[in-house]
Amino acid sequence: MTPFEYINGITFGSIAGVMATDLESGTMKHLFGLVLFGLLTLLMSYLSLKSRRGRKLLEGDPVIFISDGQILEENLRKNRLNMSEIMHLLRKKDVFDISEVQYAIIENDGEVSVMKKPEHQNATKQDAHQQSPPIPPPKPPQIPMELVVDGQIIYENLRSIGKDGKWLMNELKRVASVASIRDVFYAAMESDGSLYVDTRKDEV
């Protein structure tokens, strides 16, 4: 449901509710308002159907917030989203590791579409027929451990893996060449022990 549809639903419900409860003003007054708003809604729908500019104004555009494993912080800010909300939306799509994501897009209706990188996509039946003899199953994957969120160290998670702030800064400098923790938007310990780092200065 787009914001335009959501507002329409609330407005129609409000007018109908007032019409049902306000017996003193008369039904025709509220019925006129209901019909007028209905015509306005049809006009807006027609405008969005015929005009891309009108459609963008009423419904907005899909927004990419992850590209090639990089978080696009500016797009998050424009849509008033934080990392907790992003991780929640990704987990609903069975994505626990940002580095596996090729593209993640917020659609007009608020839903999230995710395209994983080819090496992390589920195997198809065709792939199964082309596979070599079976190999032992891998160890169950672990959920990545968040260590930095929006320039702040999550010390509780850092202690849970037996590390300290000095170790983290050394790793951040080694992996992403950052000079300050404020330069890091998000960092997490991957299931394989490697460090995923997204800095505030993305190059996409």
Automatic annotation (TrEMBL):
Region (Disordered) location: 118-142
Subcellular locations according to the entry: Cell membrane
Biased composition (Basic and acidic residues): 118-128
Keyword Cell membrane belongs to the record: yes
Biased composition, class Pro residues, residue ranges: 133-142
Stretches that traverse the bilayer: 31-49
Keywords from the named record: Cell membrane, Membrane, Transmembrane, Transmembrane helix
Topology of this chain in the membrane: Multi-pass membrane protein
GO CC entries: plasma membrane
Signal peptide, first to last residue: none
Domain YetF C-terminal: residue ranges: 50-189
InterPro entries: DUF421, UPF0702_alpha/beta_dom_sf
Main location: membrane
Family: Belongs to the UPF0702 family.
Protein name: YetF C-terminal domain-containing protein
